Amino acid sequence: KGFRGNCRCNSLRPCVMRSLRERKEDGSAQRRLARELRQRLKLIVKKESVCRTENEVKLLSQWPSIVNDIEHGMELFQRTKRRRLEVVDEPEVIDRKSRLLAEALRQSKFVAVYTGAGISTAAAIPDYRGPNGIWSKLSQGKEVCSVDLTKAVPTFTHMCLAKMVQEGLVSHIVSQNCDGLHVRSCLDRSSLSEVHGNMYTEVCSSCDRLYFRLFDVTEQTSLYRHDTGRTCTDCGSALRDTIVHFGEKGCLEQPLNWQGAMDAASRADTIVCLGSSLKVLRSYRCLWGMERVKRLRPKLYIVNLQYTPKDSVSTVKINAHCDTVLRIVAEELSLDIPSYKRSSDPLYGLAEDVKSDEKDTVSDKHIPSIDSPLPSEVNRFETEDTVLVKKEKLSDLDTLNGVNSSATTELAANGGLQMSVSRKPLPGWFGKGVRKGVKRRRVANS
Predict the structure, then answer these.
(1) Which of 63, 290, 310, 336 is most exposed by smallest CB count within 10 Å?
(2) Which residues contact 350 (CB under 8 A, 6 or more apart)?
(3) For the segment 177-196, what is each residue's pLDDT rounded down to a tens digit?
(4) How far is 102 from 105, CA to CA, in rounded Å?
(5) In what order do the strands lie in the sheet with 406-410?
(6) How far is the C-alpha of 140 from the C-alpha of 85, rounded, in Å?
(7) What is the pLDDT of residue 154?
(8) Is residue 126 within 8 Å of residue 145, measured between CB atoms?
(9) What is the DSSP letter of 222?
(10) What span, in angstroms and rounded, lies between the C-alpha atoms of 37 and 55?
């Protein structure tokens, strides 16, 4: 006879139907057992083969597919970890490769240069993905330092690129940086595409008139909220910043100048990438000549301390600081690179004052006056490792003193960059990137 139990059906057969709750509980139990098994196998795989017991070896042989999956995942993790490391070539290797780059610049007909955060780290502006970068430090649970970006000045790389454009060795520069240092290095703006915007520019939402300022216009703006609170002097419409935040699509003609960037990429026979991981730029096929047949694509030269996804197709990859490489290139090309001077900074001449009734929309942080002294040479061209040491010392000092809000120190007594460790939200486009890193870390930990 059939056994119906608590089943309400009229069949005399044994009832095989179960409630949804019972099936969910069984599924949860099976998933829990699978996780426990996988965790146990992972611990065994991490052991040295000579340290495994007979039962552990037998268990591994029973689940070959799971073991292979675990080993593949561990291999990917180690590869990712290696790619995040900053590697510096030997001095003689750097010298040889830099001279190859100089020769390529001399022989090429049209050179496009793509720049990233790595060219501004010498100005003590931290990057995001480097070992000392914002996102990297947040993922390690470390405090980050806010930098008064208005104190930063163009580095040797900025000045060298401006000179190369002037001499006709470089035709166009595509920058991912928002710090405005390319414009301040006297670079011809028609040869520049700031595809992520400029912290010193705001544009009219109606007539597209571009305004330059001597302060960071992004302090009151954020993702998808770009109004600066000021209005156009011509048409009275609202002004907006020019920053393209992570997750946004740039739609402004200037200073993004995407048309100039695409035209340059279509004509380039040589592309030089300086200080960029290329994790963003690689997705723009229009910048790499991918529409051409392979033999007609531009030669690629990369200067970066970390791995980039374009390393395998590059002609030359130089693992070195950008300033180091360009000093050798400038020497090989017999270029006399001028030092940065505030009196020659075009931003002072391009900047316009805000209306008298809009003074309250301007922060107190301005670019130093034109006659103020420059940061000392030692502090201006610090390496990333030097900056990291100073940040760590500052963070340790705050911990010992029990400081939780904000502790500020001067890196240079004579106009050096001001850096602070803070738990408060950081203003401007730089702060938006920091908060993105905080959000990513919370998601990863949840």
Answers:
(1) 336
(2) 183, 212
(3) 988 999 999 999 999 999 99
(4) 5
(5) 145-147, 418-422, 406-410
(6) 14
(7) 93
(8) yes
(9) B
(10) 14
| Residues lower than pLDDT 70 in the chain | 1-20, 128-133, 135-147, 376-446
Q: CA torsion angle for 49, 52, 55, 56 (degrees, to 10)? A: -70
Encode 268-308 in three state secondary structure.
Answer: CCEEEEECCCCCCHHHCHHHCCCCCCHHHCCEEEEECCCCC
Structure-derived torsion over alpha carbons of residues 89, 95, 96, 102, reported in degrees to the nearest 10: 120
Could you tell me which residues come within 8 angstroms of residue 40 by beta carbon, excluding any fewer than 6 positions away?
59
What SS3 state is found at 245?
coil
How many whole angstroms separate alpha carbon 40 and alpha carbon 60? 10
Residue 49 CB contacts under 8 Å (≥ 6 apart), including other chains? none
* DSSP string of 346-413, one letter each residue: HHHHHB-PPPGGGGGGS-S-BPPPTTSPPPPHHHHT--HHHHHHHHHHHHHHHHHHT--SEEEEES-T
CA count, 13 A, side-chain hemisphere, 54: 0
Q: Name the residue with tokens 């809009």.
A: 358
3-state helix, strand, coil in the chain (%, to 5): 45, 15, 40
Amino acid identity, residue 382? E
Cα separations in angstroms, 128 against 274, 327, 349: 15, 25, 31
Q: Kindly list the catalytic residues.
A: 196
- Strands 406-410, 299-303: pairing kind: unpaired
Backbone dihedral region of 345: left (phi > 0), alpha (psi from -120 to 50 degrees) or beta?
beta
Q: Order of strands across the sheet with 111-115?
A: 192-194, 172-175, 111-115, 270-274, 299-303, 316-318
